[in-house]
């Protein structure tokens, strides 16, 4: 069986597993959504900044390379290579997260670099407004896909997760949570393996690393 097909199938199954985890944990953990207008709680020390220009507006993100050095370096490689330009947020669950970084508008998956080791035990929590890496059931499988938590998702932290690994937080939205909230409220539909696909594509038109001042 072709390696690319296996990788694609594995990632899609992981997306389903993460969705199932969210549904199951919603009853057990009952994470409470913060008000849509509330600012994210600062918890990182940003060392580099990335601006995501989307079809819904601008999102400015601070990345913590001190606490998640490998994850930040990986993300920056994709940004600088233009990987995210033209990709969509392909998975949107209003009271959970918005996910992107893997698929084009026609749901074609872009090639990725080798996966990176998990850095989930770095002290950063999956709070509202934080940026974390998506992965398969293999903890060391993250490549390009990321998600932004739209509520506090404590069950995604390593200490609280079912698999004991959790999801690695490496950044936080500093400006543009109103844009994130607009995206999370968009109507979704099911198409093939994608169960929470926005009805109207929401595109990352450009991802840029801000120059150091």
From TrEMBL:
<protein>
    <recommendedName>
        <fullName>Peptidyl-prolyl cis-trans isomerase</fullName>
        <ecNumber>5.2.1.8</ecNumber>
    </recommendedName>
</protein>
<dbReference type="GO" id="GO:0003755">
    <property type="term" value="F:peptidyl-prolyl cis-trans isomerase activity"/>
</dbReference>
<comment type="similarity">
    <text>Belongs to the cyclophilin-type PPIase family.</text>
</comment>
<keyword id="KW-0697">Rotamase</keyword>
<dbReference type="InterPro" id="IPR002130">
    <property type="entry name" value="Cyclophilin-type_PPIase_dom"/>
</dbReference>
<dbReference type="InterPro" id="IPR044665">
    <property type="entry name" value="E_coli_cyclophilin_A-like"/>
</dbReference>
<dbReference type="InterPro" id="IPR006311">
    <property type="entry name" value="TAT_signal"/>
</dbReference>
<keyword id="KW-0413">Isomerase</keyword>
<dbReference type="Pfam" id="PF00160">
    <property type="entry name" value="Pro_isomerase"/>
</dbReference>
<comment type="function">
    <text>PPIases accelerate the folding of proteins. It catalyzes the cis-trans isomerization of proline imidic peptide bonds in oligopeptides.</text>
</comment>
<feature type="signal peptide">
    <location>
        <begin position="1"/>
        <end position="28"/>
    </location>
</feature>
<dbReference type="InterPro" id="IPR020892">
    <property type="entry name" value="Cyclophilin-type_PPIase_CS"/>
</dbReference>
<keyword id="KW-0732">Signal</keyword>
<dbReference type="GO" id="GO:0006457">
    <property type="term" value="P:protein folding"/>
</dbReference>
<feature type="domain" description="PPIase cyclophilin-type">
    <location>
        <begin position="57"/>
        <end position="209"/>
    </location>
</feature>
<dbReference type="InterPro" id="IPR029000">
    <property type="entry name" value="Cyclophilin-like_dom_sf"/>
</dbReference>
């Amino acid at each position: 069986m072709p390696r690319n097909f296996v990788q694609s199938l594995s990632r899609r199954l992981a997306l389903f597993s993460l969705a199932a985890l969210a549904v199951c944990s919603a009853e057990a953990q009952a994470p409470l959504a913060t008000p849509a207008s509330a600012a994210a709680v600062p918890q990182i020390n940003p060392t580099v900044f990335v601006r995501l220009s989307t079809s819904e507006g601008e999102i400015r993100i601070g990345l913590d390379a001190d606490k998640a050095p490998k994850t930040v370096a990986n993300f920056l490689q994709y940004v600088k290579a233009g990987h995210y330009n033209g990709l969509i947020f392909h998975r949107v669950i209003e009271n959970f997260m918005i996910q992107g970084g893997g698929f084009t508008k026609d749901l074609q998956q872009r090639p990725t670099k080798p996966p990176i080791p998990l850095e989930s035990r770095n002290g950063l929590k999956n709070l509202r407004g934080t940026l974390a890496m998506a992965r398969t059931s293999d903890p060391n499988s993250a490549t390009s896909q990321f998600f932004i938590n739209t509520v506090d998702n404590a069950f995604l932290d390593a200490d609280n997760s079912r698999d004991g690994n959790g999801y690695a937080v490496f950044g936080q939205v500093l400006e543009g949570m109103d844009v994130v909230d607009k995206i999370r409220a968009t109507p979704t539909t099911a198409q093939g393996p994608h169960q929470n696909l926005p009805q109207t594509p929401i595109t990352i038109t450009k991802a840029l690393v801000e120059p150091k001042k």
